[in-house]
Write a structure and sequence with these properties.
The protein has 293 residues and is mainly α. The chain has two domains: 165 residues, Tetracycline Repressor, domain 2 (Orthogonal Bundle), CATH 1.10.357; 126 residues. Helix content is 79%, strand content 0%. It contains 15 helices and no strands. α7 packs across α9 and α9 runs antiparallel to α12.
């Protein structure tokens, strides 16, 4: 007889933070920090900026768990989360989220700078409240509009070091902003029935999977073009350009394959590669920054 091992409380709280998402957010933010200066990033903004942005991302994730608990309980992908399974109570979750949010704002406001704290707060509210509470259920373009909050991390990282906004930081924002729809719509295509079940108007639910696959392809083409802008604007060199083109062509291959098939396994593979794409693209940005030629 197999014994079921109950998750420990700390594991449930860790799951609230959506660790994989936070890692991606923090990684792009840290790359933004390094791209903002020609040499080594000063230790204070590097350390405290990373902590502040990470705790803000974790706070937003926990708020998302709290606000989406009813839908999570009905979807196969999310029904095992701490709230639907009763591992944590709603008061546990919202208290945890608020504490993380306060820590984030205190760290960024005291040890980094006020601009970063303000922008991080706006991103947190944009994702946890504006997107989750309103946009997600109001329009099939929810992920396009709400993607602005998810595209902010490299800008936050840049601001934490320099204390100001820069056109190059906004280029990083643009890349993630354009990347978000094909990334998330690939998942939405695979989970179309689940979103329909809980009445969330994702694009495949309102306009069909075929229409969504076409838009994934169009956004991927646009992403390939946008990803070249750092090179064209003198922000990056040949190393980045080669990496961006190779990654973009692979992403485009998956988008074409998804457009020509109705296989949800391809949709999930496209979703999986989209994460690899973004992390690899930022790795090329970082490597090129220090080995630029």
């Amino acid at each position: 007889m197999t014994q079921t091992i109950e998750p420990r409380p700390w594991q449930s709280y860790l799951e609230l933070c959506k660790p994989k998402v936070v890692i991606l957010i923090v990684f792009t933010a840290v790359v933004g920090m390094f791209l903002s200066v020609p040499g080594m990033v000063p230790l204070q903004p590097l350390f405290f900026g990373t902590i502040g942005i990470a705790t803000a991302a974790a706070s937003a994730a926990a708020m998302n768990h709290f606000l989406d608990q009813k839908a999570d309980a009905e979807m196969g992908r999310t029904k095992g989360r701490p709230l639907p399974t009763g591992q944590l109570s709603a008061i546990n979750v919202i208290t945890f989220a608020v504490i993380l949010g306060v820590i984030s704002m205190a760290v960024l406001g005291i040890f980094v700078n006020q601009l970063t704290a303000m922008l991080t707060f706006l991103s947190l509210i944009g994702y946890a409240v504006i997107y989750t509470v309103y946009l997600k259920r109001a329009t099939p373009q929810n992920i396009v509009i709400g993607g602005a909050a998810g595209a902010a991390p490299p800008v936050l990282g840049w601001c934490s070091v320099t204390g100001n906004l820069d056109p190059h930081a906004l280029l990083l924002f643009l890349i993630i902003f354009i990347w978000t729809p094909p990334h998330f719509w690939a998942l939405a295509v695979a989970k179309q029935k689940e979103y329909a079940k809980v009445n969330i108007p994702m694009l495949p639910v309102t306009h069909g999977a075929e229409f969504t696959r076409l838009h994934i392809l169009l956004y991927t083409i646009l992403l390939l073009l946008v990803s070249v802008l750092p090179y064209l604007m003198g922000m990056s060199g040949v190393i980045y350009l080669i990496g961006a083109l190779v990654l973009g062509i692979i992403f485009l291959y998956f988008a074409i394959l998804l457009k020509t098939t109705a296989d949800n396994k391809i949709a999930m593979k496209t979703f999986g590669f989209s994460i690899t794409y973004l992390m690899s693209l930022f790795v090329f940005l970082l490597v090129d920054h220090y080995l630029k030629f």
